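Following the same procedure, sequence and fold were stored together, as reproduced here.

>
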Amino acid sequence: MDDDGISIRLTRDQAVVLSDWLYRVMFQSHDLDGIVHDRAVWSPIYAISGTLETTLGEIFVADYGPRLEAAKERLRGDLYGGDGGTADAPQHGGGGLGG
């Protein structure tokens, strides 16, 4: 098995929204226990969460809530063509993993 690391590229908005979601499911609820049944998956989840937390200074600013909501709206617009997430499916694929 190759132990070389990999990189995942996210936009700043994607990183902020993912960081918030991970925080909520990991520390404010027990949702992750219901989603992740294999404990081996926790290792990369903690690695991603820790990297986001140490990289994103905006999660500690006073206006974090409005910044988070703005990031969510931009991502919904990107995914659903600007209708705020009311469409049934994204208009395009992709998602930032790998490039």
